[in-house]
Amino acid sequence: MEVLKRIMHVDMDAFYASIEQRDHAEYRGKPLIVGGIGSRGVVATASYEARAFGVHSAMPIVRARERCPQGIFVKPNHKLYQAISQQIFTIFKEFSPVVEPLAIDEAFMDVSGMERLVPDWRQYALQLKQRVKAETGLVASVGIAPNKFLAKLASDMKKPDGLVIIRQEDARAILHDLPVRALWGVGGKTAEVLYSMGLRTAGQIADTDATTLAKHIGVLAYQIVDLANGRDEREVNSDRAVQSIGNESTFEEDLLTREEVERNLLALAEKVGWRLRTAGCAARTVTVKIRFASFATITRSMTLAEPTHFDEEIYRAAEALYCGCKTKETIRLLGVVGSNLSSCVQPSLFEEERDKAVLYQAVDALKARFGEKIITKAKLLACKKRKRKRTYPKVSPL
Ligand code: TTP
Ligand code: CA
């Protein structure tokens, strides 16, 4: 007999904003926007009160201020959010042995085969929501369904403070009017092809022959016809490794010179190197993301002979990638990402490499004790001094 799968998806409501409202009574019940505060910042998230004004994640902060001038705007406190994330994941693990993190505030949990322990799934989900509320003061939305796709859909259906259970027999009806973009894997380009074929809803996809559709959009057709019919075989994978480690900066003023770009790439490489080393892994692929003044954005990647977590090696690759992008435009955003991760760097046979590892151990011990900024490259210190100097009014020589 086929064992019915049962998947739970938990997702915290307005995560960063709810934490700030929890910790600041004066923010409660108000439109609160968490994000980069500078003129070039973007919204990380907004409280539900702010969403009523049309403010949402990834929107430029300038636009959010236009839409919601009475909003309270605050900078994110990532360390705090990370700590609370750990707290909620500890709770999740009490409710299922198989927990797959999907983001800082959401996870899939496989609760199949627990029927004898759990006579009432609604009650079980309520218990989880209550535990999270009691321990963190925050509200989670929960979805339960026979597969991952439906469980994620369910947790989103009655947000905030949602709790929805989808049964397999109801899936097709629930999916019927959903836009095709809601099917995993359908991005902008695929959606255009589907629209051109007159296919706009999941209901229409559900009734389409996958082999015929594959002639237009490739093998993705099989996946989306399955999803549209409420079928999804993917397992909850508790060992899912982090896919990449990266960092990016949007600048208050565009970067004009090559020297400025290189300094910023070095600062980003230093952050990525530190994060890779603290995560105990190394990256074989380095990617640089560049957004120009015109908003055109490019990414360039390079795969190294050996995985690395050393700042200079990440920087060398990033700089080479940047140099390969010939353009005269100024730059508003730079990012550096390490991917293709392995768990640690092979111990080197070469003395010079071993010395480097010892040096980094010392650097990291200082960073771990006194904070990431305690030690940095001389080149970056010089640049910080110069930057600060530039903020003073210029005095003309006599
Ligand atoms: P989400 O779960 O997408 O959003 P949310 O928790 O704020 O709101 P809800 O789930 O109720 O719709 O993201 C979780 C956190 O991740 C969010 O609080 C802030 C951060 N985040 C960003 O920093 N940038 C983004 O573009 C998104 C989508 C999220
Ligand atoms: Ca969330």
Provide a compact summary of the structure.
This protein is of the alpha+beta class and 398 residues long. The protein is built from 15 helices and twelve strands. Helix 10 crosses helix 11 and helix 12 packs antiparallel against helix 13.
Model description:
The protein has helices at residues 15-23, 48-51, 61-67, 78-95, 121-136, 148-157, 171-175, 188-196, 202-206, 210-217, 220-228, 258-278, 311-324, 351-370, 378-390, and strands at 7-12, 32-35, 43-46, 72-74, 98-103, 106-110, 140-145, 163-165, 244-255, 282-292, 297-308, 331-342. It is built from 15 helices and twelve strands. It starts with 6 loop residues before the first strand and ends in an 8-residue tail after the last helix. The strands form three sheets. Strands 5-6-1-7-8 form a five-stranded mixed β-sheet. The protein has a four-stranded antiparallel β-sheet with strand order 9-12-10-11, covered by helices on one side. A three-stranded mixed β-sheet has the order 3-2-4. The protein is an alpha+beta fold. The chain is globular. Helix 4 packs antiparallel against helix 5, helix 10 (210-217) crosses helix 11 and helix 12 runs antiparallel to helix 13 (311-324). The longest helix is centred in the last third of the chain and has 21 residues, at 258-278. The protein binds thymidine-5'-triphosphate (TTP) and calcium ion. Thymidine-5'-triphosphate binds at residues 11-16, 44-45, 57-58, 103-106, 159-160.
